[in-house]
Amino acid sequence: MRVAAGRGLAWVALLGLLLAPARTFGVDADGAIADGGQFFSPEALSEAGDIIRSIQSLYDRDVRVETYPEVPPHLRGDLERDGREKFYDDWLNRRARQMNVQGVFVLVTRTPARVQVGVDKATGRRAFPVDDREALRDALAAAFHNGRYDQGLLDGLRFVKQRLDENTSRDRSGSVPVVGDWN
After folding, report:
1. Nearest Cα to 139, choosing from 106, 166, 182, 169?
2. Is residue 19 classed as helix, strand or coil in its secondary structure?
3. What number of CA atoms fall less than 13 Å from residue 3's CA on the CB side?
4. What is the pTM of this model?
5. What is the pLDDT of residues 148-162, one digit of tens each?
6. Is the CB of residue 163 less than 8 Å from the CB of residue 128?
7. In-domain check, residue 39
């Protein structure tokens, strides 16, 4: 009888979790940061949201940041089969297309530790070229490796804004054509 009652309580608890409102981890008001890996403080997320909205307003470019505690179970076979480089590149490009990101996309996992940065083709032509993408990835990876998640995020977003400003200053409009083509 106790075993059956224990199972019944477990099912009730599980049902309660399934029916409870989904817990979102650090998603800013615009949905530009999904911090499922819980890297960032609420204050950093708020400030980051402000920077991202400014980038969107000034340059008509998106910045999307997604963090995960680990590679989702349904993708682990792909990681083993494809290797880290191809797997993370494919995952980032797939997510960017799904989210219709027209700009910069940052994907971070805690285990294994990884920072992947991608840019759609239109933005990568001049507004945020390969050198900028690599510099952003290296800066984020260094900050995160040292446990400076909030500072790394904010400095990284400021870097994106600065480079967009410098690279598009010749275009009086401050924007680039929207194509949204990902690899």
Report:
1. 106
2. helix
3. 0
4. 0.79
5. 999 999 999 999 999
6. yes
7. yes
Which tens digit of pLDDT belongs to each residue from 113-160?
999 999 999 999 999 999 999 999 999 999 999 999 999 999 999 999
181 found inside a domain: no
Structure tokens at 88: 């993370």
CB atoms within 10 A of CB 21: 5
Range of the domain at 50: 24-168
List the 62-70 sheet strands across, edge first. Answer: 33-35, 62-70, 103-111, 114-119
Q: Is the peptide bond before 112 cis (omega within 30 degrees of 0)?
A: yes
What distance in Å separates the CA atoms of residue 16 and residue 2, rounded to the nearest whole number? 21
Which residue from 134, 132, 152, 136 is spatially nearest to 144, judged by alpha carbons?
152
User: Quick check: is 120 in a domain?
Assistant: yes
Here the tokens at position 72 are 């989702």
